[in-house]
Fold this protein.
Amino acid sequence: MSKKDSLTELFPKESDIPKEFQLSEELIQTEYLINGEIRYWDGALETVYSPVCTLKRKKATQKEIGKYPLLTEKESLEALEAAVNAYDHGKGLWPTMPISKRIEHVERFLYFMQQQRDEVIKLLMWEIGKNLADSQKEFDRTVIYVKETIDALKDLDRKSSRFEIEDGVIAQIRRAPLGVVLCMGPFNYPLNETFTTLIPAIIMGNTVIFKPPKLGVLLHRPLLEAFQKAFPKGVVNTVYGDGRTVVGPLMESGKIDVLAFIGSSKVANILEKQHPKLNRLRTVFGLEAKNPAIIMSDVDIEATAKEVLLGSLSYNGQRCTALKIIFVQEDIADSFVKKFSELVDGLKAGMPWEEGVKITPLPEWKKRDYLLSLVDDAEKLGASIANTKGGFGSETLFFPAVLYPVTKDMKVFHEEQFGPVVPIIPFKKVEEPLQYIIDAPYGQQVSIFGNDEIEIAKLIDPLVNQVCRVNINSQCQRGPDAYPFSGRKDSAEGTLSISDALRVFSIRTLVAAKNTTQNKTIISNILHQNRSNFLSTDFIF
């Protein structure tokens, strides 16, 4: 049996799919949310195919699992009008609502959201091929993120509830919303990454238009009713369909105040340039990266190989924070590659619901062909596939390929593969990987593996001026969510963490008055009679 055939046989027959993970029926979504109303679309629909294939007569074919609306410019502009009216130049119910009340609405949403846990997790597996454990983790981490965002806002508001007096001026400084936010998340973390912009934007008093990623649409359907029940009309609005059709008009209107986008820098640049008043647009971008690992010769090879395995191939390497290029000091390069390749070959490939599975079907159309092209290019230029099972694909499955030795004339040296191909480059001096990072268009994170604190310190000082996180003897990652998450160059714009996100979707605003008897009386009366939601000393417990 060929290696391709062995991968093909990993796909199940329809009857082999465990009952608890079966989709009861094809999910035909016609619903979308605008102005607090769940509307029903009777126009064109986009078909959703799962990366999970099913076997019929030993032939694997992608399973059709549902459809979603292909809205037009008309519906997109209706969503915009709803968000603009709900914000109402900052006079609307939501932006002027006390923070304590906005928190209650978010808590209400969270209650409804948690009731949909099983359905969302199942759709994560079917839509983007994420394994069961990681799908559960994504949902549960998102719930925790929302709770911690609420706690962080309470803390922020408590610190803002006092008055300051400087140079004879009394002032209270708080954070105010920015306006209408367009939120667009990525396919690899369609729930969690989307909510890391969506929830802070909402809770800070902005109104939002939310467009799901092209892959990972249906899993948001169970949450539409939760949004409708939890928030006043116009606060949350959804659009579906082709980006050029439904997003272009939003940006061209000039009425989007904040663009929160997680995806590629190419698309981010196109979207930003469509706005007619760039000086009035705030952008929050999480973009691509090609995070390197620098492995020194004094490491514990086995422990390092295990950490690099997690960093490079968790969720098939489809993470912006994944380790996508590995530099190994040449003294240990061969030994490291051997151990790492053994670990890669030990990964279990299969369907998302299978226990212990690590390599799952890829959701992007023709991704397998692209990965094979990277492998072919590297082999032609002198690299080899170091692991026995590597470099074989069948339909949407692709078993990881470890390429060694990779050189700078290969495509995989420069391009972000965003998938299960791991290029390894031997180096003599640390100046070589350092120069790679300096020359690269990306600047998100780096991982240094070593035990010599002097050598590590020499790398830290220049690297913190090239990337936004330096990891020592650990993989690149986003969490904990309390830590800043950002990037330099083409990797990000703005900083996301629980507290940073609250700030990025708001602006410091103050009420000030000269320290006179008249002004103190006015302010005291406003406070004691609770006449203002902004000018307030209320303490949120």
About this structure: The mean pLDDT is 96. Residues 291-490 form a domain with the Aldehyde Dehydrogenase; Chain A, domain 2 fold (CATH 3.40.309.10).
